[in-house]
Amino acid sequence: MNTPTCAHAGCDERLGARHSHRARFCSTRCRVAAHRAAKRNPIPSELTTRDRWVRRSAAKVPMTVDAMPASSTNPRTWSTYETAAASAVGAGMGFVLSDVDDIVCLDLDHCLAPDGTLAPWASDIVSRAGATYIEVSPSGDGLHVFGYADVRQGRRIRRAGGYAVELYSDGRYIAMTGVRYRNAPSSLLNISALTATLV
Predict the structure, then answer these.
(1) What residue ranges do the domains of the chain occupy?
(2) Where in the chain does DSSP place strands (E)?
(3) Does the annotation count 13 as an active-site position?
(4) Which of 8, 46, 135, 144 is catalytic?
(5) φ, ψ for residue 156, nearest 5 deg
(6) Is 107 labeled as catalytic in the residue annotation?
């Protein structure tokens, strides 16, 4: 039986019958430790433990930690999270999406008002995404919704009402901010049910 493991980075204990079906941690100790870690760095360990990080310019052009051009399809231009975070190159960091796993990102542009109000169409998507990591985009008026889903080809999806949602899973990089949207958790959820409705 393939049961989930504790969501606290570094704990490999599997959640079993003694845990609630909604449990994410094996114990109170792991839950508290994960909460403290999330306050220091809200970016989920599912992303920070993968060596798929780049730096980026203010214009969101990907760069290596040595200020050379980086590519979302060339692993030799990527680095660890720690190396990218320690680099002073460019204006920030980016995470590369790859087909080696099912991590996807929904890019919701121009949906967040200066007062924090979310456009109704984006509010619906965020609500249906559930308890997964969501951060504010570098522009300050968009959101990046991360999760797991089986998406073989990224696409821009035009929706009724004149807005578009971008869905990416491979060969793209996402400009990261680490600015968590509201109380989004520092973990990834399976959002397949949501992405299936956006085709």
Answers:
(1) 1-40, 42-199
(2) 53-56, 62-63, 92-97, 103-108, 134-136, 143-148, 155-158, 164-168, 172-176
(3) no
(4) 144
(5) -100, 125
(6) yes
CATH fold for the domain made of 42-199: Prim-pol fold (3.30.2250)
CA distance 149 to 101: 9
Q: Which residues contact 11 (CB under 8 A, 6 or more apart)?
A: 5, 25, 26, 30
The 10 Å Cβ neighbour count of residue 70 is 25
Quick: pLDDT tens for 57-83. Answer: 999 999 999 999 999 999 999 999 999
Q: How far is CA 27 from CA 14, 30, 49, 140, in A?
A: 11, 5, 22, 36
Catalytic residue among 46, 107, 135, 170: 107
For the question of residue 82 being annotated catalytic, the response is: no
Q: Is 66 a catalytic residue?
A: no
Token reading at 105: 């990102």
CA distance 66 to 171: 21
**Lowest-pLDDT choice from 60-64, 162-166, 175-179:** 162-166
Catalytic residue among 19, 102, 109, 141: 109
Cα–Cα–Cα angle for 84, 90, 94, rounded to 5 degrees: 50
